[in-house]
Specification:
Layout: E1 4-8, H1 15-23, E2 29-33, E3 47-51, E4 66-69, H2 72-80, E5 84-91, H3 94-104, E6 109-114, H4 120-129, E7 135-140, H5 143-151, E8 159-162, H6 167-181, E9 188-208, E10 216-223, E11 226-231, E12 246-251, E13 255-257, E14 263-265, E15 274-279, E16 284-306, E17 309-316, E18 322-324, E19 330-332, E20 341-346, E21 351-352, E22 355-356
Parallel strand pairs: 1-2, 1-8, 2-3, 3-4, 4-5, 5-6, 6-7, 7-8
Antiparallel strand pairs: 9-12, 9-16, 9-20, 10-11, 10-13, 10-15, 11-20, 13-14, 15-16, 16-17, 18-19, 21-22
Helix pairs in contact: 3-4
């Protein structure tokens, strides 16, 4: 995960219970007090941020550690000695926010704690520091706060400092990091073997709360063996405006791929559901559903094959539906024919309530 997630261990009540668990999770940074240096032994992969309140103790701080202090004079001394440095700012008004970025840009890191629930100060700090080398870390108390901090101003803060004794929240942030790590699937070129106009049926548009790119869409298929990468509505249409939040996904029986290796039927999706947005390089991100729009339309079945595995995707039978070709180019659904190569995701079949299972199962 590109974001820096630091665990604040300075005021833990159950240090002996929680710290061993943190060491075995995905945290890459730990914040400790100077008095903890001799008893805390995190694994070598973890960065250490050491809070320092007395300049006289500076010589006892490992040179690989980041020196954190509320006293800028200590930070300047640490900087002179070659340490990475982290300033702190508690922001409760505009003047405090303005002072925070002015101080923060002088050091390697700025740890900011917001008194009010609004993220407006964070937005302003991100804007002020976006051209600087300072790493901006927001203090958060739970996983939801961390996820929101990463979404502010699209780019989000560079990281967070999680301050909690709640083991459940510590585990939830670990899951958030895991989710960010699962950001790639393997796409293949599947050859079209049959295209059929199958008459009227219900199809669904999946409207998300995100803006999708021109190379993004969703994996849609009739079977759990896989599906085609159906494009977002981000390409020129002569008779209607673009809908960059939408994928005109397919017939209502179809599977749509979701986070954590899950699938869901289109009819199961509703506002707030999470689906997987996939680009032509196989990069994935989680997006939220805002609405599912189901209407009767003529339908088109596109059957494809890769390494002996057959998949089919049924979409609205119309020129304006776009599906990605084998080289990532957008194809108009009504022009696809046998022999064409399409961008597809292919996997071993077998699902029960969307979860992959190991049992004999045949879908046609």
């Amino acid at each position: 995960m590109s974001k820096m997630i630091c665990f604040d261990a300075r005021s833990l009540k159950d240090e002996e219970i929680i710290m061993p668990k943190v060491y075995n999770l995905r945290y890459r940074c730990i914040m400790i007090g100077f008095d903890m240096l001799k008893r805390i032994t995190p694994p070598g992969r973890m960065k250490i941020i050491v809070e320092l309140n007395d300049e006289a103790n500076l010589g006892d701080v490992p040179d690989t550690a980041i020196v954190f202090s509320k006293k800028t004079e200590i930070l300047y001394k640490a900087k002179e000695r070659g340490y990475k440095t982290a300033a702190f700012a508690k922001v409760s008004n505009y003047e405090g926010m303005d002072e925070a970025w002015k101080t923060g840009e002088k050091f390697d890191y700025l740890v900011v704690e917001l008194v009010d629930e609004t993220n407006i100060p964070l937005e302003l700090l991100i804007a002020r520091l976006q051209s600087k080398d300072t790493v901006l870390l927001k203090v958060v108390n739970n996983c939801q706060d961390a996820e929101i901090a990463f979404g502010v101003m699209e780019s989000g803060s560079d990281g967070v400092v999680l301050r909690t004794d709640d083991l459940q929240e510590i585990m939830e942030v670990d899951k958030l990091m895991e989710k960010e790590e699962i950001g790639k699937i393997e796409l293949v070129k599947a050859k079209v073997i049959d295209v059929q106009h199958i008459g009227m049926g219900y199809r669904a548009c999946i409207d998300t709360t995100n803006l999708l790119g021109t190379n993004e869409g969703m994996i849609v298929g009739s079977t759990s063996n896989g599906g085609l990468l159906v494009s977002s509505e981000t390409h020129f249409l002569p008779y209607m405006e673009l809908r960059p939040f939408r994928v005109n996904a397919g017939a209502v029986h179809s599977y749509v791929w979701m986070p954590d290796g899950m699938t869901g039927y289109i009819t199961e999706l509703k506002a707030g559901s999470k689906v997987l947005c996939v680009d032509t390089e196989g990069n994935t991100r989680e997006v939220s559903v805002g609405r599912v729009k189901i209407e009767m339309r003529p339908l088109l079945k596109i059957e494809s094959e890769f390494n002996g595995i057959r998949i089919n995707t049924i979409v609205q039978d119309d020129w304006h539906i776009r599906i990605f070709g084998g080289n990532g180019e957008v194809r108009n659904a009504s022009t696809i024919k046998a022999g064409d190569e399409m961008m597809a995701y292919v996997c071993n079949g077998g699902r029960h309530v969307g979860i992959k299972i190991d049992e004999r199962l045949e879908e046609r």
